[in-house]
Amino acid sequence: MTTAPAIETKDLCKRFGAVQANDNISLFVEQGTVHGIVGENGAGKSTLLKMLFGFYQPNSGDLIVNGQKLDLDSPSDAMAAGIAMVHQHFMLVEPFTVLENIILGAEGQGMLDHAKTDARAKLLGLEQQFGFDLPLDTPVSQLSVGERQRVEILKALFRGADILILDEPTAVLTPQECDQLFELVRLLKSRGKTILFVTHKLHEIMAITDAVTVIRAGKVITRVATSDTSPENLAEAMVGAKISRAVERAGQEHGAPRLRVDGVSAQSDLGHTALKNISFELFDGEVLGVAGVAGNGQTELLDVLTGLRPVSDGTVTLGQELVNSNEAMTDPIELRRAGLAHIAEDRLKTGVVADMSATENSILGYQREPDFSENGLLKLSAINDAAHSYFESQDVRPRDPSLAVASFSGGNQQKLVIARELARDPQTLIIGQPTRGVDIGAVTKIHDQITELRNTGKAVLVVSADLDELMAISDRIIVMCEGEITGTVDIQDADERTIGLMMAGAHAEATTEGAGL
Amino acid sequence: MSASAKKLPGAVEAIAMPFLNTLIAFLLSGLLIWALGEDPFYALSLLFDGAFGYQEGIGYTFYYATNFIFTGLAVSVAYHAGHFNIGGEGQAMLGGLGLTLAVFWLGDTAPVLSVIIAILGAALFGGAWAFIPAWLQATRGSHIVITTIMFNFIASALLAYLLVGPLQRPGGQMPESSDFPEGAGLMKFDELMSVLGFSFEQSPLNVSFLIALLMALAVWFLLTRTRFGYEMRVAGKNQNAAAFAGVSVPRVTIIALMMSGALAGMMGLNELLGEQLRLIGNFTLGYGFVGIAVAFMGRNHPLGIVLAAILFGVLYQGGAEIAFEITTISSDMIVVVQGLVIIFAGAMPHLMRKPVTAAYARLIGKGAA
Question: Using CA atoms, how far apart are residues B315 and B322, in angstroms rounded to an integer?
């Protein structure tokens, strides 16, 4: 084949102040292929994508689309060149129907009805061609996450895109929805579309791509045909060294029950029922994973366990103490004093105050402990010492606690939070999304620390949207769907398929029956 | 340097930027004065002569500044707790009422004690006037901007009623109270100076300036040294993180806004207990609103607020001098100049950030090379 590559970049550079986000990125993506781009958080993937989609303009270097050198000044330039992007967070107007969302930005003249009629005809053709089955007149708010993603893709096709950039498309999907997405990607490829598939999940790269480019620290490390590489090789290219878990799970039996959740129901912020009659126990010396598609009650569960949300029914008991019932809720300060630490799932929203210094953040939640304040006055030198020791113990960089938390990378912010929460040797840990927005090198260290806590007899509950993560560190996994526990599995019996079905709402009995048939 | 090059060092940030903004406002004002056919440099010299050229002028400058320190601090305390208290006017009026009641209650029998009670009364009434909006905000989510501005009108009406009714000077025609009893007032600065063996021209400047400075120090201490100040700032920046840290956001909101109201209420000490020695209607003259500009120009830092308050003192006193000396420049023109300073230094604090950052980066680059 002698056709020009769909996308080719030559020595693309982009810097932000002192940070060289993209350093001489040269890559090419052949027509009609699925091309993977992998790299750690902060490797420069998003910067590259944003240049390809016209959000950013490169400082130097060339961007060549279908053999033509282009200067993309805005996303509309990119769309005119046939490039469309499906963002990780969908850009849809929820109360609008599918049809209205798709024509948004391409409504044509003053009268909407014309545009709608024309669009409907064109969309029906596209739906047939690519095997979509989306209800055009249903509001997007009534669609599942997977369906919304297909709306985004259909929208891109409607605009005449030939090159689709999918940014972390599987992050929000159940395993079954992922399978459907992969089918669609293969179909798109067979119809001649070119797809850029950006992810950090290596098995997806292996499953769906034809070739893959690995980016590390703003540079292209390697470009290989997928058939010539392995997940291990890719991981090594991503982080620059072989990553290995240093801490193994000691084969101990778990200890006594530490945290008991009994028949708990609770409401979401909007007043909907978010938890329905949840019961489980967390034992000393175990890691209990909580799996589920984001938004199925995990956030409310974390709140209920950590004294941030009252229950409407049921009880939460820590050791012998009743800590949450519809009569009373122990506040977070008392819970911490009772040995329960909480690493919040949304760091920037809850776990830190981003524009206060790391020093000030290192006492958040512990500001009333006698070593940090007395008679209403802060003990500034003790606080300073604590911050420095936290930076030391978790190797937070840069080593300057006077900087605002916002100026640290996600991984370093998380290290600071972990240091703060582990400082008082808590017996119980409630962790939400332990490695969200954390780079791979730090991920391993965090997993090791969690395992170590478990090995020393602590009770650890981990909520994560990343099933691989839970499979790697948990002793048991409970699965949540629509505020209910749809199943509990021991790690030795856990397989992604069954858990995936439970995440989609099938109860444990049903899935085992299904397996039996 | 691993620290982000986008950040400016504290000194540049806190001093150079407001200075540049003020400079732009002055340049524009100069152009306006020039367009009126007057000499801007003469006007500028009048401004500074009027404000600092003679002792009485200095007295007036710092007398005005005292008001702005109180109201500026009031705005900043609420701001650090995440709220925008624009009820300084009303809280100051009620503070004035509180101190008036105290001196009429005790002034005849124990003037000195009455002054002490009056100081507390000013703070207490100002704080209490902020309590209702604060409570509505904390428990019902009623927006503090709306409620405090409404409470300004209520305070104004209440004072008007009292001053043509029960509190009016017997037989008087003006909306004002009787004079405070003899001795029930704050010491004038010139009196203080003569006690200390110096001489200073008579002016309205009185010891409430020192009380204001003390309050600035207290606010600084509250914000940086106390646990409550810490929890208040956490709640002001991130309510979720505050809940996570076990801080009761409604409680912090109510206390912080009451502190804010108390500071605004203390403005009456300067105007009434220091100078007028009687309660007069609408004595606040918009100082509560100027406090917003002062707080923002001072970057909500107590020291910055004191400096910004003095600048506004200069504008008020020196501006009056200009209006007096140059007939084509009316006092309305002086309000325009004040407005320009508020716009550039208060409302657009980041206007010069890019060029300053670039200039600073070049400077550092040179230094390193």
Answer: 10
- Which of B4, B13, B226, B255 to mutate to probe the A interface, most A CBs <10 Å? B4
Q: Note whether A7-239 and A257-339+427-517 share their fold.
A: yes
Chain B residues whose beta carbon lies within 8 Å of the beta carbon of residue A17: 4-6
Residue A399 one-letter amino acid: R
ipTM: 0.87
Check B244 against A368: CB less than 8 A apart.
Answer: no
Chain A residue with Cα closest to B3: A398
Using CB atoms, pick whichever of A350, A363, A367 lies closest to residue B240.
A350
* Residue environment code for A429-446, b if the CB has 16+ CB neighbours within 10 A, otherwise e: bbbbbbbbebbbebbbbb
* DSSP one-letter string for A145-198: HHHHHHHHHHHHHHTT-SEEEEESTTTT--HHHHHHHHHHHHHHHHTT-EEEEE
What is the structure's pLDDT at A353? 96
Contact A243, A440 (CB under 8 A): yes
pLDDT tens figures, B270-309: 999 999 999 998 899 999 999 998 998 888 999 999 999 9
Which tens digits make up the pLDDT trace of A389-399?
A: 999 999 888 89
C-alpha–C-alpha distance, residues A460 and A474, integer Å: 9
Architecture of the A7-239 domain: 3-Layer(aba) Sandwich (3.40)
Stated as kind and residue range, the H or E segment containing A260 is strand A257-267
Distance of CA A473 to the CA centre of its chain: 17
Tally the C-alpha atoms within 13 A of residue A447's C-alpha that lie toward its C-beta. Answer: 26
Residue ranges per domain, chain A? Answer: 7-239, 257-339+427-517, 349-425
Fold of B57-304: ABC transporter involved in vitamin B12 uptake, BtuC (1.10.3470)
Helices (H), B83-173: 88-106, 111-140, 144-164
B159 burial level (CB within 10 Å; 0-12, 13-18, 19+) = buried
A257-339+427-517 topology per CATH? Rossmann fold (3.40.50)
Instruction: Report the residue of chain B nearest A370, measured CA to CA.
Output: B227
Chain A residues whose CB is inside 8 A of the B227 CB are 367-368, 373, 376-378
pLDDT under 50: residue ranges of chain A: 1, 512-517
B344 and B95 Cβ atoms separated by less than 8 Å: no
Q: Indicate yes or no: CB of A356 within 8 angstroms of CB of B237.
A: yes
Q: At residue B159, what are phi and psi to the nearest 5 degrees? A: -65, -40
Q: What is the pLDDT of residues B12-38, one digit of tens each?
A: 777 788 888 889 999 999 999 999 999
CB-based contact, A398 to chain B, within 8 Å: yes
